[in-house]
Specification:
The chain is of the alpha+beta class. The chain has helices at about 5-15, 20-25, 30-35, 45-55, 60-65, 70-80, 115-120, 125-130, 195-200, 240-265, and strands at about 105-110, 130, 145, 160-165, 175-185, 185-195, 200-205, 215-220, 220-230. Mean pLDDT is about 85; it is low at about 85-90.
Amino acid sequence: MFLSENLKFLRKRRKLTQQDLAETLKTKRSSINNYENGTTFPPVNILIGLSDLFHLSIDTLVRINLSGLRESQMYVIEHGSDVFVKGNEVRVLATTVDSQNKENIEIVSIKAKAGYTTGYFDPEFISALPNFQLPILTRERKYRAFQISGDSMLPIRDKSWVVGEYVQDLHAIKDDHPYIVLTLNEGIVFKLIKNELAGKGSLKMISLNTEYVPYDLPISEIREVWKFVLYLTDEIPESADNQQIFKKLEQIRQEIGEIKNQVTS
């Protein structure tokens, strides 16, 4: 257990004296000293008070060595995401398997997005989603398919399906790679990402469509991250290069026609 170390760590992080903490918790300074030295264990009412004060679950206070976490991880915990964080991992993912105990790829359609934003951690909700298998993907990873909407990631079109690999550690997010991110307020978004967690405590969200302005997503807004693996669509994407070639050929054809007209006139 790490309660005594965590109590001292959190108190100093808040720049509180033992007397300050004792007054806040309505107990004696000597009791705080005993808790920090590990000579006595706090009663339930004190544990609840510490949980409320530091915005941490009692489980985290007791079982996680907070002083061993990176600053950005502490930022996640202190800004309301404690229930999703344990050590270096985001959380335990709700998932489903087939009859042979193989991981399914659950399907989150546009219609299911609203429900997913509140039910993503609920095993019953996840088990009700349609699912499929894709043998070309490795069995050692967890995948989920999301239907995107809008034109911010053209040439990946509206209503295409993107398959993502679950990201356990937010620090594994690579710059300029596409990710599907479940957010607290925006729902599911699909963007290129610049990882600025270490410096700014946020992700820079960038669209392929340059008409959309990049923006910062605070780490406290993040609920799930899926690394883009592939996308499925029933349309062939238009190539900007091909369009330019066709336009150039049409321009040449018109110029040749004009020259012929001048020669024959």
